[in-house]
Q: What sequence folds into this?
């Protein structure tokens, strides 16, 4: 059962470690092979330098176990070093937590590699472009880290016919007003109570080019604090 929003926000904020973020969004690649109508970013191609990636993980590891999301607006499985990146995180600290969010289009190709990786949670945001073979579906259903995410207003009813063991549903994000969610969402957005965001302290983001972003939902890099190519996160 979910905590009421005010209690959840309070609990999350007491979890903040002001010496270093407990979670980092790392945009290993800005490249994506889809053009979703609810994505706020124009087509961008660019990969994070692997030395920059290891610098980020090495610094974070000095503060104990942390968690990492290997995405912002790109498809992480298009990153040339995505497998090495996952292994490097666990090598630096076996208690680090890894979240991989994917559009699923590369899963068939990499299924045997994927299910052997030390990923703590793999989220597939349901997309019709992701075509899974029966063998792939069988392996994904048995793989405990795998969860299917249905984003409100972006999938047909038929998508629910495939019974996945682990499912979550999310409202669509407006990305700071960049997306008109009324085109997709059936939820009355005006009825939702909003609270100040704590992500800057708990879970900030590093973009593919090293820019340290105030917000993980900043597709056009408008609020930049610094550049991790020249500075530390701390």
A:
């Amino acid at each position: 059962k979910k905590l009421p929003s005010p209690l959840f926000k309070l609990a999350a904020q007491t979890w903040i470690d002001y010496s270093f973020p407990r979670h980092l969004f790392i945009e290993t690649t800005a490249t994506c092979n889809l053009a979703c109508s609810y994505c706020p970013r124009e087509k961008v191609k660019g990969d994070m330098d692997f030395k920059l990636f290891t610098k980020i993980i090495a610094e974070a590891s000095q503060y104990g176990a942390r968690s990492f999301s290997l995405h912002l607006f790109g498809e992480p499985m298009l990153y040339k070093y995505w497998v090495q990146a996952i292994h490097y995180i666990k090598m630096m600290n076996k208690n680090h937590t890894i979240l991989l969010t994917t559009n699923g289009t590369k899963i068939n190709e990499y299924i045997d590699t994927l299910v052997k990786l030390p990923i703590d949670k793999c989220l597939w945001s349901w997309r019709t472009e992701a075509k899974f073979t029966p063998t792939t579906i069988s392996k994904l259903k048995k793989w405990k880290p795998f969860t299917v995410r249905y984003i409100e207003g972006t999938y047909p009813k038929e998508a629910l016919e495939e019974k996945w063991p682990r499912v979550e549903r999310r409202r669509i994000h407006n990305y700071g007003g960049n997306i008109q969610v009324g085109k997709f969402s059936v939820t009355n957005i005006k009825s939702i109570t909003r609270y100040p965001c704590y992500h800057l302290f708990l879970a900030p983001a590093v973009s593919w080019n090293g820019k340290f972003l105030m917000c993980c939902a900043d597709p056009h890099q408008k609020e930049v604090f610094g550049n991790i190519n020249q500075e530390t996160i701390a």
Q: What stands out?
A: The first strand starts at residue 23 and ends at 26. The CA atoms of residues 52 and 141 lie 34 Å apart.
